[in-house]
Amino acid sequence: MLTTLWVRLGAFLGKVFLIVVALGLIGWLLATTWFAWHYRGPVSAQEQIPLGESAMTQGIIQTAISVVDQHRESTRYLRDAHAKAHGCVKAEVQVVSDLAPALRQGVFAEPGKVWQASMRLSNGNAYPQMDSAKDARGMAIKLMDVPGPQLLTDQQGRGEQDFVMFNHPNFFVSDVAEYAQNIAAQANGQSKQAFFPGWDPRTWQIRHMFIALGTLAPAPNSPTESTYYSVSPYKFGAANAKFRVAPDPQSCPQYSLPPQNQGLPNFLRNALNQQLSADRVPACFVLQIQRQDPSKFMPIEDTSIEWKESDAPFETVAKVRIPAQDFDTPALNLACDNQSFNPWFAIEAHRPIGGINRLRKAVYEAVSEYRHSRNAEQ
């Protein structure tokens, strides 16, 4: 009798398992079908600014400043994101010598041109933490002595072109409205509410949650081994484009990084210092652009959507070289902390576009001014 009971229980559990699997497959099929139908081209090649964006931006500025206040280090005020730098280094950005005419735009207009640049490598979090913690990793490049009017009318003396990136191809929010809700939840210590703001399943952002989890990746062996993406789009002459910076080891001397102690809190800085300062070996990358094809689903206003390489391949426009150098000194680290990177430190040919970039224009300026004014008082 007991054997019969166990057989029947096993058969029942087997049926339940098959039903759950079948429901899961049906759900996956329905979700895939809906996603393919909802997220399809064509899309606009022009910006589309929603009503109320300006008011939401002002609220986000106040939240970002509160994050800076919460996470200040002793008496020093840090960035509201990418607070911990692995170092700022000198770099050279050389436009490809045989660049196709259609790609000769802005700072890439002159084939073979070499730009002197500053590069900041960082963790993504709003407060410093162990490098071994799962986190986004950032790269910002600033080209120096760029001629022509700057986009920001009060920054005409800068002569800079900044490229700001992190190591994931898409962002975990679509637009300014979602960013407002997300950063408010994070600032209040309610991380679950960032993607599940209420009981209504229609407000849940499960896809974005998985993007965020994908962004929080284990640390690389070195900041020079990651690929970094702009995530948001920019003008590229008359076209729209995203860009990325990817390792290009074949353009540098062959190098194997010695094993690093990843238990140390700053092992990524140590790895960068090992290669550039101790072993005196440069690091090489390619800077690539991905031009929008509006007939495909490559939207400007939704940064949660990855532009597929099958729709538009990346094209190399420049080589980036970080020469051997000493960068890890108190004076240089302080200068690194004080340096501002902003996608709006730019010329018209590379104007940032889309909601997240419009948000950056206001937030970066306000947070930078607040942080520098508070640090000047210390």
Describe the structure.
This protein has seven helices and nine strands. By secondary structure, the chain is of the alpha+beta class. Strand 6 and strand 7 form a beta hairpin. It has a single domain, classed as Beta Barrel (Catalase HpII,  Chain A, domain 1). Helix 2 runs parallel beside helix 3. Strands 1, 2, 3, 4, 5, 6, 7, 8 and 9 form a nine-stranded antiparallel sheet that branches. The protein is 32% helix and 17% strand.
CATH superfamily: Catalase core domain
**Low-pLDDT windows of residues:** none
- The quaternary state of the protein chains shown equals single chain
**SSE pattern, N- to C-terminal:** HHEEEEHHEEEHEEHH
Share of β-strand residues: 15-25%
Counting structural domains, the number is 1
Described by strand count, sense and barrel closure, the largest sheet is: 9 strands, antiparallel
Structural class: alpha+beta
Radius of gyration, in angstroms, nearest whole number: 23 Å
Number of helices: 7
Q: Tell me the distance between the termini.
A: 81 Å
Give the CATH topology.
Answer: Catalase HpII,  Chain A, domain 1
Tell me which CATH architecture applies here.
Beta Barrel
- CATH class group: Mainly Beta
Helix content: 25-40%
Averaged pLDDT:
88
Shape: globular
Question: What's the total number of strands?
Answer: 9
List the helices and strands and how they pair.
Blueprint (H helix, E strand, L loop, with lengths): L1 H37 L14 H18 L14 E11 L18 E10 L13 E7 L17 E6 L9 H12 L18 H10 L12 E2 L4 E3 L2 E9 L19 H12 L4 E9 L23 E8 L7 H9 L16 H22 L2
Antiparallel strand pairs: 1-2, 1-9, 2-3, 3-4, 5-7, 6-7, 7-8, 8-9
Helix pairs in contact: 2-3, 2-7
